[in-house]
Recover the amino acids of this structure.
Protein backbone atom coordinates (compact mmCIF):
# COMPACT_ATOMS: atom_id res chain seq x y z
CA UNK A 1 0.00 0.00 0.00
CA UNK A 2 2.67 2.43 1.02
CA UNK A 3 4.94 1.32 -1.84
CA UNK A 4 2.11 1.72 -4.34
CA UNK A 5 1.33 5.28 -3.32
CA UNK A 6 5.01 6.21 -3.28
CA UNK A 7 5.62 4.99 -6.82
CA UNK A 8 2.48 6.70 -8.04
CA UNK A 9 3.50 10.01 -6.51
CA UNK A 10 6.98 9.70 -8.05
CA UNK A 11 5.43 9.20 -11.48
CA UNK A 12 3.27 12.26 -10.91
CA UNK A 13 6.08 14.58 -10.01
CA UNK A 14 8.61 13.72 -12.70
CA UNK A 15 7.17 15.98 -15.44
CA UNK A 16 6.58 18.78 -12.91
CA UNK A 17 10.16 18.51 -11.69
CA UNK A 18 11.60 18.94 -15.16
CA UNK A 19 9.42 21.96 -15.85
CA UNK A 20 10.29 23.36 -12.45
CA UNK A 21 14.04 23.09 -12.99
CA UNK A 22 13.74 24.88 -16.30
CA UNK A 23 11.82 27.72 -14.67
CA UNK A 24 14.01 28.02 -11.59
CA UNK A 25 17.28 28.36 -13.53
CA UNK A 26 19.96 29.78 -11.25
CA UNK A 27 17.63 30.13 -8.25
CA UNK A 28 17.20 26.36 -8.07
CA UNK A 29 20.65 26.00 -6.53
CA UNK A 30 19.65 27.80 -3.30
CA UNK A 31 16.35 25.98 -2.76
CA UNK A 32 16.16 22.93 -0.46
CA UNK A 33 17.26 19.95 -2.56
CA UNK A 34 14.36 17.70 -1.54
CA UNK A 35 11.76 20.33 -2.36
CA UNK A 36 13.24 20.90 -5.82
CA UNK A 37 13.49 17.16 -6.42
CA UNK A 38 9.83 16.77 -5.60
CA UNK A 39 8.90 19.75 -7.76
CA UNK A 40 7.11 21.31 -4.78
CA UNK A 41 8.98 24.56 -4.14
CA UNK A 42 6.27 27.02 -5.07
CA UNK A 43 5.13 30.31 -3.55
CA UNK A 44 1.48 30.59 -2.56
CA UNK A 45 0.57 34.20 -1.92
CA UNK A 46 -2.52 34.82 0.14
CA UNK A 47 -4.55 37.85 1.19
CA UNK A 48 -4.88 36.77 4.80
CA UNK A 49 -7.01 39.53 6.29
CA UNK A 50 -8.28 42.94 5.32
CA UNK A 51 -9.26 45.33 8.11
CA UNK A 52 -9.74 49.08 8.52
CA UNK A 53 -8.43 51.29 11.31
CA UNK A 54 -11.88 52.56 12.04
CA UNK A 55 -14.79 50.30 11.22
CA UNK A 56 -17.18 53.17 10.60
CA UNK A 57 -15.50 56.14 8.86
CA UNK A 58 -17.60 59.23 8.12
CA UNK A 59 -17.86 61.53 5.10
CA UNK A 60 -14.62 63.46 4.47
CA UNK A 61 -12.53 61.32 6.80
CA UNK A 62 -9.36 59.50 5.80
CA UNK A 63 -8.94 55.97 7.14
CA UNK A 64 -6.54 53.11 6.49
CA UNK A 65 -7.21 49.72 4.94
CA UNK A 66 -4.76 47.17 6.36
CA UNK A 67 -4.05 44.21 4.13
CA UNK A 68 -2.13 41.25 5.58
CA UNK A 69 -0.29 39.40 2.83
CA UNK A 70 1.37 36.02 3.38
CA UNK A 71 3.36 33.49 1.42
CA UNK A 72 2.01 30.15 2.64
CA UNK A 73 3.90 28.21 -0.04
CA UNK A 74 7.26 26.51 0.35
CA UNK A 75 9.05 28.61 -2.25
CA UNK A 76 10.08 32.26 -2.13
CA UNK A 77 8.08 34.68 -4.25
CA UNK A 78 9.30 37.10 -6.85
CA UNK A 79 8.09 40.72 -6.63
CA UNK A 80 4.61 40.90 -5.12
CA UNK A 81 2.04 43.11 -6.84
CA UNK A 82 -1.21 43.99 -5.07
CA UNK A 83 -4.11 45.92 -6.56
CA UNK A 84 -6.50 47.56 -4.11
CA UNK A 85 -9.82 48.48 -5.69
CA UNK A 86 -11.61 51.57 -4.43
CA UNK A 87 -15.41 51.54 -4.85
CA UNK A 88 -17.75 54.50 -5.43
CA UNK A 89 -18.09 56.42 -2.17
CA UNK A 90 -14.37 56.16 -1.44
CA UNK A 91 -11.44 57.95 -3.06
CA UNK A 92 -7.72 57.40 -3.34
CA UNK A 93 -5.29 59.92 -1.84
CA UNK A 94 -1.50 60.20 -1.51
CA UNK A 95 -0.46 56.58 -0.88
CA UNK A 96 2.00 55.45 1.78
CA UNK A 97 1.96 51.64 1.67
CA UNK A 98 4.23 51.01 4.60
CA UNK A 99 7.83 49.86 5.03
CA UNK A 100 9.11 48.13 1.89
CA UNK A 101 5.96 48.81 -0.09
CA UNK A 102 5.77 51.09 -3.10
CA UNK A 103 2.27 52.26 -3.95
CA UNK A 104 0.95 54.42 -6.76
CA UNK A 105 -2.52 55.62 -7.62
CA UNK A 106 -3.19 53.42 -10.63
CA UNK A 107 -6.53 55.01 -11.51
CA UNK A 108 -9.36 56.86 -9.79
CA UNK A 109 -10.56 53.49 -8.56
CA UNK A 110 -7.41 51.61 -7.58
CA UNK A 111 -3.97 51.57 -6.03
CA UNK A 112 -1.16 49.45 -7.38
CA UNK A 113 1.40 48.39 -4.75
CA UNK A 114 4.57 46.33 -4.99
CA UNK A 115 6.77 44.60 -2.44
CA UNK A 116 10.21 43.16 -3.32
CA UNK A 117 9.72 39.57 -2.17
CA UNK A 118 7.99 37.38 0.39
CA UNK A 119 10.09 34.38 1.37
CA UNK A 120 8.37 31.06 2.03
CA UNK A 121 6.39 31.47 5.26
CA UNK A 122 6.83 35.25 5.18
CA UNK A 123 4.19 37.89 5.78
CA UNK A 124 3.85 41.65 5.64
CA UNK A 125 1.18 44.28 6.01
CA UNK A 126 0.20 46.76 3.32
CA UNK A 127 -1.55 49.96 4.45
CA UNK A 128 -3.43 52.18 2.05
CA UNK A 129 -5.29 55.40 2.88
CA UNK A 130 -8.83 55.94 1.67
CA UNK A 131 -11.09 59.00 1.84
CA UNK A 132 -14.85 58.83 2.26
CA UNK A 133 -16.31 60.98 -0.54
CA UNK A 134 -19.98 61.20 -1.53
CA UNK A 135 -20.88 57.99 0.26
CA UNK A 136 -24.40 57.46 1.57
CA UNK A 137 -24.44 57.52 5.39
CA UNK A 138 -25.45 54.12 6.70
CA UNK A 139 -24.39 52.33 3.51
CA UNK A 140 -21.61 49.75 3.23
CA UNK A 141 -18.79 49.78 0.68
CA UNK A 142 -16.39 46.93 -0.17
CA UNK A 143 -12.61 47.26 -0.40
CA UNK A 144 -10.92 44.45 -2.31
CA UNK A 145 -7.22 43.54 -2.50
CA UNK A 146 -5.89 41.18 -5.18
CA UNK A 147 -2.37 39.80 -5.52
CA UNK A 148 -1.22 39.12 -9.08
CA UNK A 149 -0.44 35.37 -9.31
CA UNK A 150 3.23 34.41 -9.43
CA UNK A 151 4.57 32.44 -12.38
CA UNK A 152 4.83 29.27 -10.28
CA UNK A 153 2.08 30.03 -7.81
CA UNK A 154 0.73 26.87 -6.15
CA UNK A 155 -2.80 28.21 -5.65
CA UNK A 156 -4.07 31.43 -7.26
CA UNK A 157 -7.57 31.05 -5.77
CA UNK A 158 -6.67 32.65 -2.42
CA UNK A 159 -5.08 35.79 -3.85
CA UNK A 160 -8.08 38.04 -3.22
CA UNK A 161 -9.58 39.32 0.02
CA UNK A 162 -12.01 42.05 0.94
CA UNK A 163 -13.62 43.92 3.77
CA UNK A 164 -16.86 45.85 3.97
CA UNK A 165 -16.78 49.28 5.58
CA UNK A 166 -19.90 50.85 7.08
CA UNK A 167 -20.17 54.58 6.42
CA UNK A 168 -21.15 56.44 9.58
CA UNK A 169 -24.08 58.84 9.79
CA UNK A 170 -25.88 60.28 12.80
CA UNK A 171 -28.64 59.20 15.15
CA UNK A 172 -30.28 60.49 18.33
CA UNK A 173 -29.91 58.59 21.57
CA UNK A 174 -32.00 59.89 24.43
CA UNK A 175 -33.62 58.87 27.65
CA UNK A 176 -35.07 59.78 31.02
CA UNK A 177 -33.65 59.09 34.47
CA UNK A 178 -36.20 58.74 37.23
CA UNK A 179 -36.58 57.40 40.73
CA UNK A 180 -38.64 54.21 40.81
CA UNK A 181 -40.34 54.78 44.17
CA UNK A 182 -42.39 51.56 44.16
CA UNK A 183 -39.53 49.55 42.60
CA UNK A 184 -41.75 47.94 40.00
CA UNK A 185 -39.47 48.82 37.08
CA UNK A 186 -42.08 51.12 35.52
CA UNK A 187 -42.06 54.93 35.41
CA UNK A 188 -45.36 55.73 37.07
CA UNK A 189 -47.15 59.03 37.46
CA UNK A 190 -45.76 60.95 40.41
CA UNK A 191 -42.35 59.29 40.42
CA UNK A 192 -39.73 62.07 40.37
CA UNK A 193 -36.97 62.78 37.87
CA UNK A 194 -33.36 62.34 38.95
CA UNK A 195 -31.53 65.42 37.67
CA UNK A 196 -27.92 66.40 37.13
CA UNK A 197 -25.87 67.01 40.29
CA UNK A 198 -23.68 65.46 42.99
CA UNK A 199 -26.70 63.84 44.63
CA UNK A 200 -28.23 62.84 41.29
CA UNK A 201 -26.80 61.90 37.89
CA UNK A 202 -23.12 62.69 37.41
CA UNK A 203 -22.69 61.67 33.79
CA UNK A 204 -24.41 60.01 30.85
CA UNK A 205 -22.00 58.54 28.31
CA UNK A 206 -21.86 56.30 25.26
CA UNK A 207 -19.51 53.33 25.34
CA UNK A 208 -18.43 51.34 22.29
CA UNK A 209 -16.02 48.52 21.57
CA UNK A 210 -12.50 49.18 20.41
CA UNK A 211 -12.05 49.94 16.73
CA UNK A 212 -15.18 51.97 16.28
CA UNK A 213 -15.21 55.74 16.23
CA UNK A 214 -17.65 57.08 18.79
CA UNK A 215 -19.40 60.37 18.24
CA UNK A 216 -21.44 62.35 20.71
CA UNK A 217 -19.42 61.51 23.81
CA UNK A 218 -21.27 62.33 26.97
CA UNK A 219 -23.86 64.70 28.37
CA UNK A 220 -25.63 65.68 31.57
CA UNK A 221 -29.31 65.34 32.34
CA UNK A 222 -31.83 68.16 32.44
CA UNK A 223 -33.83 69.09 35.58
CA UNK A 224 -36.70 66.95 34.28
CA UNK A 225 -34.41 63.91 34.04
CA UNK A 226 -34.20 63.89 30.22
CA UNK A 227 -31.00 63.78 28.20
CA UNK A 228 -30.15 63.54 24.50
CA UNK A 229 -26.99 62.88 22.47
CA UNK A 230 -26.60 63.19 18.70
CA UNK A 231 -24.18 60.37 17.96
CA UNK A 232 -22.18 58.84 15.16
CA UNK A 233 -23.65 55.61 13.78
CA UNK A 234 -22.93 52.18 12.34
CA UNK A 235 -21.67 50.73 15.57
CA UNK A 236 -22.79 49.05 18.76
CA UNK A 237 -23.36 51.40 21.67
CA UNK A 238 -24.00 50.94 25.31
CA UNK A 239 -25.40 53.80 27.40
CA UNK A 240 -23.67 54.15 30.77
CA UNK A 241 -25.01 56.28 33.58
CA UNK A 242 -22.96 57.34 36.56
CA UNK A 243 -24.95 58.55 39.55
CA UNK A 244 -24.66 59.21 43.26
CA UNK A 245 -24.11 56.09 45.35
CA UNK A 246 -27.35 57.02 47.15
CA UNK A 247 -28.97 55.13 44.29
CA UNK A 248 -29.05 51.64 42.90
CA UNK A 249 -30.53 50.24 39.69
CA UNK A 250 -34.18 49.18 39.48
CA UNK A 251 -35.26 45.99 37.71
CA UNK A 252 -34.83 46.20 33.93
CA UNK A 253 -37.18 45.38 31.06
CA UNK A 254 -40.31 45.00 33.21
CA UNK A 255 -43.55 45.49 31.24
CA UNK A 256 -44.17 48.27 28.73
CA UNK A 257 -40.88 49.20 27.03
CA UNK A 258 -42.00 52.83 26.65
CA UNK A 259 -42.00 53.32 30.42
CA UNK A 260 -39.59 50.66 31.70
CA UNK A 261 -35.92 50.87 32.72
CA UNK A 262 -33.38 49.78 30.10
CA UNK A 263 -30.38 49.56 32.44
CA UNK A 264 -29.47 45.86 32.61
CA UNK A 265 -26.00 45.88 34.23
CA UNK A 266 -24.50 47.35 37.40
CA UNK A 267 -20.74 47.91 37.17
CA UNK A 268 -20.04 49.56 40.52
CA UNK A 269 -21.82 50.88 43.60
CA UNK A 270 -18.98 52.84 45.26
CA UNK A 271 -17.79 55.57 45.24
CA UNK A 272 -20.43 56.21 42.59
CA UNK A 273 -23.09 54.07 40.96
CA UNK A 274 -22.23 52.99 37.40
CA UNK A 275 -24.89 51.17 35.38
CA UNK A 276 -25.23 50.26 31.72
CA UNK A 277 -27.80 49.35 29.07
CA UNK A 278 -27.60 46.38 26.73
CA UNK A 279 -25.57 46.98 23.57
CA UNK A 280 -27.63 48.13 20.61
CA UNK A 281 -26.82 48.75 16.97
CA UNK A 282 -27.06 52.44 16.02
CA UNK A 283 -27.97 53.21 12.41
CA UNK A 284 -28.15 56.44 10.44
CA UNK A 285 -31.39 58.34 11.04
CA UNK A 286 -32.35 56.21 14.03
CA UNK A 287 -33.72 57.36 17.39
CA UNK A 288 -32.98 55.19 20.41
CA UNK A 289 -34.63 55.66 23.80
CA UNK A 290 -32.73 54.30 26.79
CA UNK A 291 -34.38 55.04 30.14
CA UNK A 292 -32.93 54.51 33.59
CA UNK A 293 -34.87 53.82 36.77
CA UNK A 294 -33.00 54.37 40.04
CA UNK A 295 -33.97 53.22 43.52
CA UNK A 296 -32.75 54.60 46.87
CA UNK A 297 -30.05 52.40 48.40
CA UNK A 298 -31.11 50.90 51.68
CA1 LIG B 1 -2.16 32.01 -3.73
CA1 LIG C 1 -42.55 52.57 39.36
CA1 LIG D 1 -37.53 51.18 27.52
Amino acid sequence: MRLNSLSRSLRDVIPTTLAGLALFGVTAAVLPADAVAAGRAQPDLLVDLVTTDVLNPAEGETFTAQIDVRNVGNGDSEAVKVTVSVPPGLQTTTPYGGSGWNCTVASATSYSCTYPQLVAGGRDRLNVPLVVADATPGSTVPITASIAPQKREANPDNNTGSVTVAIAGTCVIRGTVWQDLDRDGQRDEGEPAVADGPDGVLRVSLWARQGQAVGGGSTTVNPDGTWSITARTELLYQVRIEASSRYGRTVADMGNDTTDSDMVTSYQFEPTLLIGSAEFSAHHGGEYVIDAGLVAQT
In short: Residues 170-296 form a domain with the Immunoglobulin-like fold (CATH 2.60.40.10). The pocket of calcium ion (ligand 2) is lined by residues 180, 182, 184, 186, 188, 191 (CB under 6 Å). The first helix runs from residue 2 to 24. Helices lie at 2-24, 33-37.
